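Researcher: Go.
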Amino acid sequence: MAAGHVRKRGNKWAAVVFLGLDGRGKRKYKWYSGFDTKKAAQAELNRILHEMNEGTYVVPVKSTMESYMLRWLEHVRDRVRPGTYRQYEWLTMQHIIPHIGRIAPDKLQAEQVQRLYDGLLHGDKPLSARSVLHLHRVLHQAMGRAVKWGIVARNVCEAVEPPRPKKVAIEFWEEAELTEFLRAATSSQHYIAFLLLASTGMRVGEVLGLRWDRVDLDKGVISVEVSYSYTGSGYELEAPKTEAGRRSVDISDGVVAALRAHKSKQAKLRLKLGEKWEDNNLVVATGTGRFVLGHNLRKSFNVVVERAGLKRIPMYNLRHTHATIMLRRGVHPKIVQERLGHSDISVTLNTYSQVIPGLQAAAANSLDDLFSSIQTPISKA
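Model: Structure:
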């Protein structure tokens, strides 16, 4: 049973809570001072004793959100991908610490967090709803860890209302537009990269990090195991975010033929350059065998799009184009999910929901000849 008492200190009253014995057998107490009346101190004592009996009491520590968030970042550094960690770190340093860093974790109120979100949404340099939602997820995760560590009794982010980003319609090319793009791209040094993006649905970083030993040309299968992406301080090879991201993707005979031709051309260039060739065994490489940087590939993509006179879409949306075409051609969403490396089929269905209604109508019409042969009964008066 929790124990404590109230005591007068000068002109003020204090609630004194018994915390047990220390390592040397001495009694430990926690003082809560500054109350004007004995009644107020007693009320605080009763509240604390109730929490202790309920098992929700947390001993206050002299800490701030700044010191706690830095400790949390240290904790997650080796538990998340480098790119993910840098996002956590950037959001913490740019938005969490400057706004609520001086508040003690156990004193942080939901209203203060809500005010932070609202200010970032409507301030002089407003953030997008998606960015604020990402910030909320980071802070929610950090405060959840604070609960587990016994620093706070509850996660204040549970009582906060994060923004809901508006669903943006995905831009993609129709089949004719994609065909026109690939025709125009045949003269580009990055043609094979564009072909892989369009024909496999792989992410840009996955294509840039693909090595020849992960491509089985005899079986027509690509094994996706790494991604070459910009992480904040430079480009790095990273493992997929989820286990589903580590996957095998089947490729068509036409893509296999294009890869064989590309590999042969690359081998001739390697022999020609000799020691000047940097052998990274990359499928998509520079003229000297090095990694192609994402921003350079995007520049090349935009040049081809401009030359072909096509509508502008982000290069990443070749992935969306691939998925949309497959769904429209009747490929099962589960197969599309596996090709894209989504962790759950719901991600695929939610992302491409704008395509689904058309598929529903097509499915209904496919049964029309079956039911149209059945005569509709005429009801008798």
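Model: Residues 167 and 370 are 37 Å apart (CA to CA).
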